[in-house]
Amino acid sequence: MQKILIVEDETAISSVLQSILSDELPTHEFIIAADGLEGFKYIEKEDFDLIISDIKMPKVSGTELLKQALQVKPESTFVMISGHADIDTAVDCLKEGAYDFISKPIDINRLITSVKNALNKEKLAKENKTLQKENSTLKKKVSKKYQMIGESPALKKIHDMIAKVASSDARVLITGPNGAGKELVAHAIHSQSERSRGPMVEVNCAAIPSELIESELFGHVKGSFTGAIKDKQGKFELAHNGTIFLDEIGDMSLIAQAKVLRALQESKVSPVGSDKEIKVDVRVLAATNKNMQKEIEAGRFREDLYHRLSVIEIYVPPLDDRKEDIKLLVDYFAKALADEQGTAPKFFEEGALKSLESFSWTGNIRELRNIVERLIILGGNTVTAEDVAAFVRK
């Protein structure tokens, strides 16, 4: 049961307040404190959804009660009661953190409205806190696998962009070379968005034959083509209320591009072999390692689809442009590989790290991880520059 504390030294007023508010809020429990000192003792022992306090009281004033209560329980919600001579003090209470104040003589309608609004505010604050905890837990689960490692200016710029776009539903096109970490950016956007509790569905457009991409994206009905032995949901439908990540979008056929464009325009998809339209609520993230302007000029990619997908564009630079992150990445991969194998992580000497930093990383972070794994397997207990020279061909 929700609890409301009334702190008032005049018994007649506290009784009237309890009587009026009990009729309006029959599911609430009311507790009366005769002064600020008694009120503070209650606040220390119990949690209240709302505290209604007079300002002028013996022993401890309402102003002091407010300050002391917010120190021990910062989320407490206060509505102050003030006489005409206490208006300036009441305004100071608002600055200290009170939700509202009611002047004497008390306007009943004004009191009821203020109390209900304060309780709604408290309820929303609790719900928001719960959601933040859930989202924080979810983000930790997601980010551990898809964590972006590094402190370079280039990576900080990407983090800043993610923070700005994640809370919106804007479509994002992530560009950059193979192995640079475009997938990690997509997962970071999803995990920090309001859709994080929904699914994130990934589609590698380059790995699916052109004749099957429509079925993969939009689903199909039984008998719509050879091998369609049962109905199948498409990726767009599976991603409803979440995010779909179209990786290597530049390799998608023109026919499939036209279907994706229609899905984005109408928020509807039609399974292959069906006239039925399915409403979908999906945020679209896409990635490519291609120069999309050249693909458009060559007629291999629709310009109208490009503009639909690239409301926001995030460029992920190659590892060669952020070599200052190599040490952190090596440490991260060494620990991750040790955890996988159940062994202690190997130490990389400074000379080994300098050697790795001197290389050109055409395969980017993916290539670096493979080489770290090779050095851990083939190198000594401590990985040296000599190990790098012996086992890495660059």
UniProtKB/TrEMBL annotation:
Which keywords, in A-to-Z order, does the entry hold? ATP-binding, Nucleotide-binding, Phosphoprotein
Q: Know the name of this protein?
A: Sigma-54-dependent Fis family transcriptional regulator
Q: What positions does the domain Response regulatory occupy?
A: 3-119
Keyword presence, Nucleotide-binding = yes
Q: Please give the start and end residues of each transmembrane region.
A: none
List the PANTHER family hit by this protein, alphabetically. Answer: TRANSCRIPTIONAL REGULATOR (NTRC FAMILY) (PTHR32071:SF17), TRANSCRIPTIONAL REGULATORY PROTEIN (PTHR32071)
A Gene Ontology annotation in the biological process aspect, one of them, is: regulation of DNA-templated transcription
Matching entries from PROSITE patterns are given as: RESPONSE_REGULATORY, SIGMA54_INTERACT_2, SIGMA54_INTERACT_4
The yes or no answer to whether the keyword Metal-binding is present is no
What phylogenetic lineage does the species belong to? Bacteria, Pseudomonadati, Bacteroidota, Flavobacteriia, Flavobacteriales
Give residue numbers for the modification (4-aspartylphosphate): D54
Which InterPro entries does the record associate with it? Answer: AAA+_ATPase, AAA_lid_NorR, CheY-like_superfamily, P-loop_NTPase, Sig_transdc_resp-reg_receiver, Sigma_54_int, Sigma_54_int_dom_ATP-bd_2
SMART domains referenced in this protein's UniProt entry, alphabetically: AAA, REC
Q: Which GO terms describe its molecular function?
A: ATP binding
